[in-house]
Amino acid sequence: MKFITVDSYEKMSRMAANLIAAQLLLKPACVLGLATGSSPVGAYQALIDAHRRGELDFSEATSVNLDEYVGLDGAHPQSYRSFMNTNLFDHVNLPKERTFVPDGRAADLERECREYDARIASLGGIDLQLLGIGLDGHIGFNEPDDRFLKPTHVVRLHESTIRANARFFDSEDEVPRQAVTMGMGAIMQARKILLIANGAAKKDILQKAFFGDVTPQVPASLLQLHPDVTVIYSEV
Ligand code: GLP
After folding, report:
1. Which domains are delineated in the chain?
2. How far is the CA of 81 from the centre of ligand 1 (A)?
3. At what angle do helices 41-52 and 80-87 cross, to 10 degrees?
């Protein structure tokens, strides 16, 4: 594992964008695993800037997102589909039909989960998975549990996650209580993993996740067993 500490959100974002750009240049038809949250917004902006300068072509790539809230339509401003459109997809030439986000409104969510895993498998797996980390150590929406869940699944969000994500909604009551998340299986099978985090509040959980015990109580700790993980942390 490479653990890189930088001193600004901007540097973290630029470094992350460079690694994603390198993946695209190395293998234009790659599968990018993408994440939401405030951590990747700067990296996405840097990718958009590079694309606008004519340095980056997404036309052959495919993306699979980590997660989506149950019950939110893709058009809902707080859905992760909408987040991805606004923060990346609407501004680069990644064909929309090859951008996959779980459908949180699927009538049969179990089936949606199975099909999401089948889709990732049919794409040949993920080349580079971008991750953030929740304050409780969740990645995607894999919440602390007594076991690591491999497949894509429906998860009940923990109170601390609902509280943390309430800032994006008008009130805490509006935060969906459930989500569909890619499981630890597809994440761990990604060929490369890039986790970004910023702010003093994330320091303790990063310490636990990357230098503590590997335990499903800290889902991100499983990444210690992955052969190609880069963590970029900005303390501010
Ligand atoms: C949400 C997302 C995660 C993300 C986490 C941290 O819970 N499901 O994928 O990593 O938030 O978000 P932030 O980057 O805003 O701290």
Report:
1. 2-234 (3.40.50.1360)
2. 14
3. 40
Express each pLDDT in 79-93 by its tens digit. 999 999 999 999 999
Atom of ligand 1 nearest to the CA of 202: 16
Is position 213 annotated as part of the catalytic site? no
What is the Cα–Cα distance from 1 to 132, expressed in whole angstroms?
16
Q: What is the pTM of this model?
A: 0.97
Q: How far is the CA of 29 from the centre of ligand 1 (A)?
A: 27
Please give the distance of CA 72 from its chain centroid, rounded to a whole number: 18
Within the chain, residue ranges assigned H as helices are 9-26, 41-52, 80-87, 109-122, 159-165, 184-189, 203-211
Secondary structure (3-state) at 197: strand
